[in-house]
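Task: fold both queries, return tokens.
Query 1:
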Amino acid sequence: ILDPPLVLSYIGHECWKTTPFLSVVGSRDPHMISKAWINLELREFLKRQRVGVVSGGARGVDFMAHQLAFQLDLPTVVFLPSGLHQMYPASIRQHVRSIVDAGGCLMSEYNSNLEVRKYLFQHRNRLIAAMNHAVLIVEAKEKSGTLMTAHYALSLGKPVWIVPGHPLMPSFRGSLNLVMEGAQILRGAEDLRLFFESELIS
């Protein structure tokens, strides 16, 4: 990336050295069909392929993906928009042990005592876009941090895959717009497997 972090601090394990990763991002308030897709299709993919998850720890899609990973004893990396001693969101603190025990980590490029700032979300998102083999967008509005992450990934030449929704559903319009910018639609666990394996080979 053009502006790499000077320092990365973490709590947990150096899992990025040994595990292939998929970044998973999406709405903080996902539709019930997105939740069902995550619990069925993403779970099946992670369970069979043993791929780690990168995301930002926010409620909704991000945390659901992290939770799937540590429930399946897979490493997950949580990139924080704050310092490690001022974890945001605060709710992630109760899951630190589960994340670490499953081989994952919580990571930040900021001073350990820095509290969250609005501008740090976008700054942090470039790392979520970079530390992976691909980015999966489960559900995104037209203006969202999820789209920022997707655009970072596309600028890096990373594959971006989206779970499609109906064009009349506002919460999916951003996702569908990404198709016009080079993202690829996928249907389920089998598509994820095929796409991801092609990235490991290339």
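Query 1 returned. Query 2:
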Amino acid sequence: MNKVIEKTELVRIAGELFRQKGYSATSIDDIAKQCGLTKGSLYHHFAGKEELALAAVEQVHEYYRENIFSLILERERPTAADLAQFNRAVEAFFAEHPYGCLFANLSLEMGGTYAVFKKRIDSFFEEWTSCYRKAFAQSMPEAEADACAQDAVASVQGCVLMNRIWQNLGPLRRQHARLLRLCENVLPS
């Protein structure tokens, strides 16, 4: 059972287990077994489950920063094509991760107040909201763009939750299409 595994892969597997089973229901034994490690080998990399969950949260957030959020945030003036690409990237992520959003799942399980995760969860969702805010702000007053951005993240997350239940990305794709239609009339092509 003493397998060699990259630390990033260990974190990825732990994140999938947290997403699938929940933080509380996932034990260090579960993670070690899934990784083909002994508990001692796992503890060599991480002091415990909380530290491993924080690493998983950071890994997912970093993926989003580099591969999804950057599609909007790195543009001076995002276009409708940028928003469409952003939407496709979100859909692709959840097609590969059908057990939902790690941040939302942790928030639901912990009640959104568990201090260890709260700051990171808030940061992730604020960054996601800022993507929509940047797109909407080109055609709306700031307060309206902010409200629409918050609503967009909330509805997309609802669709992600339903994908976990129904194993069907259709609602997410339809919501993304509605958001794109909202922006197409005001964003450059």
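Both queries returned. Flag for query 2: The chain has a mean pLDDT of 93.
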